C-alpha cells in the first residue's frame, strides 16, 4: 500500500475528468430574463448591464428565435410601463406590457416556458414593491393588487408566476386568487428568500424601479440572517409555493444549500444584475477570463444545490456549451 492516495489518477485526462464530474450546467437549468418596453423597434442596451436590452414587443420574435437556436427553453419577463401611478395599475392591466409580451411569446413559441415577475415596484412612481400609505409600505392592503397581477399574467398565458415583493402572505393570496379564477395548474415560483442587497443596482436602472424614499429593508431580508431564510421558505411552502428562490445567489450559496437540505421543492438561484455586471466589467478590462469565471460561478450554484439558475449570462452559457461540443 502506498503511503499516500493518488487522487490525480482521476484527473489525468479530459475524458477522465468528465467521467467523474459531479455537477454540470446545461441549458435546461437556465431561465433568461427579458425586459420589455412599449414602442416600436426598441432595442436599447442597459448602460450598466452590457449585452442586456430593453425590447419592444415587435422585437421579441428575433429574441425568441435566438433563444430557440440556443436551446434555452425558459424566460422570465420584467416590464416597464408607459405610465406609472400610485396603485401600479399597468401591472395588472389586461393590455399591460408584460401581458402583451406573454401573449406574443406564446404565439411565437408555444412550448417556451414563460415565467413572470409579480411585483408593483416598476409600475408606481415611488418604486416600492407594495402600496405606500403615509410614507410606509403597507402589507395587507398590497396583497389584493399583487394577487391581481398574478391572475392577469395567468390569463395572458404565463406558465409560472414569480412573486418578488416579499410581502407577508403573498403566496397564500396568489394561490387562492389563481385557484378561484381557474388557474389551479399554474405554479408559483416564490422569491422566498430575497435579501435587501446592494447587488441589485444595475437591475434598478434596467427596470426603472429605484425606491424614491427610504429603502426596502422593512420587507426584504437582512443579509446577516440564515435562520430567517428557513422560516420564510417554510411559510411559503405552507402557503402553496411550488419553487423556492434565493436572491441574490453569489454571496448566498450557503443559503441555497440550507434550503436544498431542508426542503424537497426545486430551488432556484437568481444570478442578479450586480453579479453579472461585475464580471462583464472585469472581462471588458481584460482582468479575468469571462467564460471561465462565469462557468465556474454556475457550477458553484449547482454545487450548492440550485436546480434552476436565473441568469443574464444564459445566452453566453448556451453558446459556450455549443462550442464545447
From TrEMBL:
Zn(2+) binds at residues 119, 121, 129. GO terms for biological process: protoporphyrinogen IX biosynthetic process. One of its GO terms (molecular function) is porphobilinogen synthase activity. One of its GO terms (cellular component) is cytosol. Mg(2+) binds at residue 232. InterPro entries: ALAD, ALAD_AS, Aldolase_TIM. PROSITE patterns: D_ALA_DEHYDRATASE (PS00169). 5-aminolevulinate 1 binds at residues 204, 216. 5-aminolevulinate 2 binds at residues 273, 312. Pfam families: ALAD. Pathway: Porphyrin-containing compound metabolism; protoporphyrin-IX biosynthesis; coproporphyrinogen-III from 5-aminolevulinate: step 1/4. Catalyzes an early step in the biosynthesis of tetrapyrroles. Binds two molecules of 5-aminolevulinate per subunit, each at a distinct site, and catalyzes their condensation to form porphobilinogen. Homooctamer. This is Delta-aminolevulinic acid dehydratase. It comes from Desulfuribacillus alkaliarsenatis.
